[in-house]
């Protein structure tokens, strides 16, 4: 501000002043008595001497071309001036406020400068009244002539001063209080109501305190002084929140994107995941939680309500108060309330969330309150346990960051520039360059940020004609209607070419580390299966439909949800499985091969051959005890890969219908039929073989005396009553013998049997028995028909 002054007043000596003499251009420190000059507070004073003027400026040394906030007076007789800071004086305070009745605050201090102009001593005083200030000019003559001083006008450099034009005589005081706002200075007590169509007003209070009202940074004026909230958040991998700030998600967790206290049962969640690189995450899906229900917006335009898939089109479908629609650009979900509208758009890659409502509505989540940490906004209950793990990968040397930056900067050129005033392109450019300087510009990513900015502009009624032709982009959603599994993402086979489902980098890495195309073989007692990963097969250019086992009719089954391909065989269909065995193991082996597989020395077709096998340990031997009076005994057995139940029963008839019970009396030489039966074994795969059975009169299998009934799987030829009806044929063993007793020791009889399981494929499990005549019984037992006996039995297996 310039105050041209005629320094022609009389000199008055200020008693008690601690003067500092100024002899050259200087910067004076007035921080102990700062002056608020028409609404601008200053703590320094710049003093200039010229041939014609002495100038006091607040913001810089005087420059005629750039005058600034200055007070200009006539040049003194000599290049000297005295500078003082004077503390408040009650008499002076009353005198000034009597002179200037607009001053409301109390005097705190003053800055005074005295110099001689011709025959007058001129004192310029600047008074500090807090937010207010005053200027005084006093002149006293040294000789007989009395001059007057006048402030002709007040101007702030390049700034209009509303209604300020002051003039006064010697000993008068000027009120230099005011407020500044948007390039305009207002006098105290001024209230300016602007056009209600832009909803703003300015008030400069009586004590020169500025007060403004208007729409907030996220609001727009609807007219009639009504402000409405209208804000948009864009989420790709980076998040451009409603304030235009950027957040970057480095992990693969779920986060709260948007919520508002006015809707406690509504939340928008974002689920992030990796794609081609393990160290870069992108938005993978969006979930709207509404009144306890989940509406999932997923890749390819798929929409699910809880666990059910919805069929959508361009017509709105109301689902739990949410309007859902789908077109070629993506899926839109809109929630309409009495005074609040929330819309969520998702095209499979980018989500844009818009909130329209009354002023004062708050936005929380990653899209809103940026002061909260990512950990606070992470939704652990909707995330995997390992989602927070972060990875480092080597930089992609094929990426030209300079070229990428030029591409992203298209947002500052036409036709995008027509929207730059309403939608700041800088956050979109930053998100674009940060991503594409690290991740290859494939899978539609080259257009993703340009498309997101275009849609944000369209929400504010900007139509960017010709943007698709300028950028060679399409407005349609990338990979629309192609659904990939959780461990896959949709990408381009070639740049700008057809699309397919690719394995996510982290998922694929565990297979690539072992040079594998699938999971380990799953071996069970009656079957085996091998599962291959569909997207890994496609990476190798292998069509799963051309693959089969050794039996060409045995082909892989595709899981439509996971795209995993499973090959299997079982006892009902061995699919050409080869079985080999040695003393310790049983090995089942098969091969997955391509339809055009050839064993010739040369071939002109792609060949696929994947061998897989199951190795089972030979079954073990176990021991249990059976008392015939208990009718039967059953025991669960685990032997190698097999789990089954063995039951032993005794009968008095050949058809095995009359079970020996606890009260059945058995006579010596009476024929007994024994049944050793299993449950849980596949008779097509294995057979139960009784290697040997023998009797003792004690519970221990190694006690004596001992009598053999079965030896090497065959009836003991020394006991002509023993007959083996079935052994090694199926999953049961049947044999019979005549009752007897030992002539030495206890009258009880314990029966012991040693059994094993025999894999049937490639083996003859039925024992080969000699037809030679059986010899007489051992001398250690005899027939005594008149003596009844109870029999206890035990066996080993």
Map the helices and strands.
Layout: E1 4-5, E2 20-22, E3 26-29, E4 35-37, E5 40-42, E6 44-49, E7 53-57, E8 70-74, E9 81-87, H1 90-99, E10 109-117, E11 120-129, E12 132-141, E13 160-161, E14 173-175, E15 179-181, E16 184-186, E17 190-193, E18 201-204, E19 210-213, E20 219-223, E21 226-235, E22 238-240, E23 246-248, E24 254-258, E25 266-274, E26 281-290, E27 293-297, E28 303-305, E29 308-310, E30 317-319, E31 322-327, E32 330-336, E33 341-346, E34 351-358, H2 374-377, H3 401-408, H4 426-436, H5 445-458, H6 467-471, E35 488-492, E36 499-503, H7 505-512, E37 522-523, E38 527-533, H8 534-539, E39 547-548, E40 557-558, E41 564-570, E42 578-581, E43 585-594, E44 609-617, E45 623-627, E46 632-639, E47 642-651, E48 671-679, E49 686-696, E50 706-711, E51 714-715, E52 723-726, E53 732-738, E54 741-742, E55 750-759, E56 781-782, E57 792-796
Parallel strand pairs: 1-8, 13-16
Antiparallel strand pairs: 2-9, 3-6, 4-5, 6-7, 7-8, 9-10, 10-11, 11-12, 12-14, 15-16, 17-18, 18-19, 20-21, 21-22, 21-34, 22-23, 24-25, 25-26, 26-27, 27-28, 28-29, 30-31, 31-32, 32-33, 33-34, 35-36, 37-38, 38-41, 39-43, 40-41, 42-43, 43-44, 45-57, 46-47, 47-48, 48-53, 49-50, 49-55, 50-51, 52-53, ...
Helix pairs in contact: 3-4, 4-5
